[in-house]
Amino acid sequence: MKIFAGFILALGVPALLSCGGTAPSPAAGETANAVSAVTLRKGPPARRILERCMPEAMTDGIVKVAVVLNQAGGDQTWRFTAACVSEGRSMGFTVDTFLTDGEHERCRELVGRIAGADYDGLILARGGPGFSYSSLTPILDKGIKVVTFDVPPNKNGDFSGGLMPGITSTVQGDESLARLSLEAILARFDESGQNPGRRPVRVIRVWFGPGIPELDRRQRVFDEFVREGKIEEAALVSPKDFSFARSGVKEALTAALARLPEGTVDAVWASHDEFAKGCADALYETGRLDIKLVSIGISNDDLKQMLARSAVWLCAAAEDPGLIGTVNMRLLAAKLAGEETPDTYIFEGRLVNTASLSPTVTMANIAVMLPDWGRDRGLFDQYPWMTELKAAESKYLRLPPVHIFAESP
After folding, report:
1. pLDDT > 70: what percent of the chain?
2. I want to staple 367 with a disulfide (CB 3.0 to 4.6 A). Which of 117, 153, 262, 373 is the partner?
3. Is 85 part of a structural domain of the chain?
4. Are residues 234 and 146 in the same domain?
5. Which pTM value belongs to this model?
């Protein structure tokens, strides 16, 4: 069984294999704030498989999963949550999704409410380092299975303290993303002949923090390049408010450029894609097309902006948020079935070059230019019971599968 381009394909039902399970239904009114709630009827074969593989979760007849994403809405958010829902549906789970817009206190309160409800599993994405450990403790104590994405489940956010036992922590390959993007800057100036003396490339760093784990990890790689003499930080630019990243960066970079005459800066490194759009706006509006832009993160809007600002925006290092959602749900299903799962899993990124784009390229078809983009084969989908379950569930699915690679609304 495999999933390709968001469609569920049943390739046959293998012989029954034993599997175990663990875990404890939403309290009244609990899903009122859900962005998406999907409850499917399970046909008898699928139900029997769930009862055999996840007996504790099926004590009330339903496997219930909460997905909490501490991030504002947008294309990346939609793709992540749609993938979680689609993959959960394919196994007959009820999946409720919640967004908390990057508001840490709201996220903390919501996770606390989930601990008091009756969910069997939780996917928590982008919680804060200061509260995730304490917030997840009562969840685990109740027997709810947990997978996190870009959440530091370490006591007091201290990475040296080790991971919280029982959780699988998935993260973006932020170090590899930062390295890909910074090496693209170096390659540009080496290959263009603009750096014959091999001096450090002068880069404006656009960043916000500390306290945002993924940005902190990217920052550490930038510092490494500085220490090695590969780049020189020409200036640091940050928005005053992360909630207004694009406009804040545009304003801050415009002010910085006024102090940096032409010839004193080679490139801008945007550690987040919303920052990059503000950078592109500032470079164009100030006429500083002599400075090139490299960024991290991708969305449909980014692809459009990269083409519109192609004179400065060279490339973006990115990962597929849909793939991340799919894999997180598979890992959670494996935990519910009593399978051994890794403590950590790192998603590696790809480099999207503006020169390779065309107006027809979107997040839905970007795999045409990047063949490995969104490839999910072999990523925690090799359990015989999962293949069997998806094949059985597909026979009784009354709604069409969510096409997670369709354009977001």
Report:
1. 83
2. 373
3. yes
4. no
5. 0.81
Q: Give the range of the structural domain holding residue 47, as residue numbers without chain letter.
A: 2-172+320-347+363-395
Locus of tokens 């400075």: 291
Tokens 């263009």 found at: 192
Number of structural domains the chain divides into: 2
Tokens standing for residue 323: 């793939």
Same domain, 66 and 145: yes
| 53 lies in the same domain as 167 | yes
Tell me, yes or no, whether 391 lies in a domain: yes
Q: Which residues, listed in sequence order, are joined to residue 38 by a DSSP beta bridge? A: 95
- Contact (CB, 8 A) for 270 and 293: yes
- Cβ burial of 385 (10 Å; 0-12, 13-18, 19+) is buried
| Residue 249 contacts residue 239 (beta carbons within 8 Å) | yes
Buried b (16+ CB within 10 A) or exposed e, 82-119: bbbbbbbbbbbbbbbbbbbebebeebbebbeebbebeb
- How far apart (Å, rounded) are the C-alpha atoms in residues 318 and 29? 38
- Report the CATH number at residue 194: 3.40.50.2300
C-alpha neighbours within 13 Å on the C-beta side of residue 409: 3
3-state secondary structure 171-216: EECHHHHHHHHHHHHHHHHHHCCCCCCCCCEEEEEECCCCCCHHHH
Give tens-digit pLDDT for 239-296. 999 889 999 999 999 999 999 999 999 999 999 999 999 999 999 999 999 999 999 9
